[in-house]
Amino acid sequence: MKRISFGQICLGLCLISVALPACQSQKEIPWQTFAEKPEPFQPSPNSGNAWDEYFLAANLARRATEKFSNQADLRDVEESSYLSRVQNSISIATRASSLPCNADFVPHDPFKPRLEHEGLTAIGRGIGIQIKKAASSNTASQAVTPIITAHRIADHLTHGDVQDALLGYWIASNARQQAAPLLDKLDAGSLNRIGNSILASLDEAAPSSETINNEYKNMLMGVQFVQDAHKTQDYGLLTTAFYKQAAPAIDYLRGLRPQDRPRFFTNFAAEAKLFSEHAQSVADQPATERKSITFSGERPWKRFSQHLFEPVLTFIEARDRHIARSRLFALTCLATAAGKSTGKAPLDFTNLPPEASTDPYTGKPFPYQRAEREFKIYSVGPDGRDDGGESRGNGLEPDITIEPAPN
User: Fold this and answer.
1) Distance between CA 129 and CA 135 in Å, rounded?
2) Nearest to residue 171, comparing CAs of 212, 130, 142?
3) Distance of alpha carbon 134 from alpha carbon 114, whole angstroms
4) I want to staple 150 with a disulfide (CB 3.0 to 4.6 A). Which of 89, 137, 175, 270 is the partner?
5) What b-and-e string marks burial along 25-61, b requiring 16 or more CB atoms within 10 Å of the CB?
């Protein structure tokens, strides 16, 4: 056996003592915290807060309509049954819509289902059916409250995050589409009530900054999700969550050196802030004056960013469309009411606050022409060009009009 000298033993111990701190320092690079796991939101009964009541109503509606949960659309023969199941929830939401709305916002895991949204969608569907039934019968006045309720819910939901707001915008748009055939059937008093109520509802919507700030909290939840998956090397989870489009970003994480991890996630989270600040800066500008968000340098997290951060830009586009179409619908109701009362549509809308007739795409008044009772009003849309109200039958391009009646 080869003898080992005391000197060699000492040298070996010294080398080990030098090597260990280096290994330990590599393993012990701290993991950053970008978002704490929040306690789930629990709505409070009888709080006097519309936000609580909406979510309580949504829970009831989701359970009541489970039979239809896998159906994207309802058949005509199913609508009465569906409405009877969701009627109680609609009644709760209708009463809630007249209450003050203060959201106790809780950030969301970006990949967990939003069960309350299933219930709110059911309520929106039910409201649409109510309006549709009124339009197909001689009970047009019964559509007034549902139309107003849909808009109040929509504007109240902007006190949440982007997904809340987008769902609210759909509820209002669906109500307007179902109401389109009713405008000629409603009396002047009902039309005035609808028009003025929708304009008042828009005034009660959350400022864009509130929705964007809430969405920023969700963005950080997304950053935390990606880091947690990387920490456990659960790249299959990331593939499931982001699909194959994120493969380059996932592959980058697989090869990420531990010492480079803090910088990667710090910069990833900083981009969430960049999206949020950009959205804040442009949300209330006329669409034609907005500049696009720009980036510099390498962005290996780009595919994650597209999924987690870009929805805030989608929100701004949807908000423009909601404001434009809500104002157009309200003004159409008011002009139609004037025609029924006086025989002539109004010359202009100067009796209303200026923003009521402002096109959010240009910051200027909506194009409006009238001849006796006949009138035309529309938005020039995102391109900022006046195409004379041409919208190719869908009300969306190139100019924007109110939703056409369903086929």
Assistant:
1) 10
2) 130
3) 31
4) 175
5) eeeeeeeeebbeeeeebebeeeeebbbbbbbbbbbbb
- Find residue 371's DSSP bridge partners: 374
Peptide bond into 365 cis (omega under 30): no
Within the chain, how many helices (H) and strands (E) appear?
Answer: 13, 2
> What's the CA gap between 2 and 112, in Å, rounded?
63
The residue type found at 136 is: S
Instruction: Using the structure block, give the residue that is written with the tokens 């969306």.
Output: 396
**The two structure tokens encoding residue 216:** 């920023």
Helix axes 247-254, 235-242, angle to 10 degrees: 170
What's the predicted TM-score (pTM) here? 0.91
DSSP state for residue 341 in the 8-state scheme: H
375 forms beta bridges with 370
Burial class (CB in 10 A: 0-12, 13-18, 19+), 203: exposed
CA atoms of 122 and 124, how far apart (whole Å): 5
| Radius of gyration of the chain measured on its C-alpha atoms | 27
Q: Residue 297: which region, alpha, beta or left (left: phi > 0; alpha: psi -120 to 50)?
A: left
Token reading at 193: 């009530």
| Helix residue spans in 109-234 (DSSP H) | 115-135, 144-156, 162-179, 188-204, 208-231
Check residue 382 and report its DSSP letter.
Answer: T
- In the numeric block, which tokens belong to residue 136? 């197909």
Closest CA to 339 of 240, 160, 195: 195
Write out the H or E segment, with its range, that includes residue 328: helix 311-342
Mean pLDDT, range 354-370, rounded to an integer: 97
Each residue of 5-35: pLDDT tens digit?
A: 434 434 343 433 444 444 444 467 999 999 9
Q: Which of 110, 113, 105 is nearest to 220 (CA)?
A: 110
* Contact (CB, 8 A) for 206 and 161: no
One-letter amino acid for residue 196 of the chain: N
Buried b (16+ CB within 10 A) or exposed e, 315-325: bbebbbbbbbb
Q: Which of 370, 379, 368, 374 is nearest to 403 (CA)?
A: 379
Whether 169 and 117 have beta carbons less than 8 Å apart is answered as: no
Q: Are 149 and 94 in contact (CB under 8 A)?
A: yes
Q: Which residue has the higher pLDDT, 7 or 43?
A: 43
Q: Which amino acid is at 293?
A: I
Question: pLDDT, tens digit, for every residue of 281-306?
Answer: 999 999 999 999 999 889 999 999 99
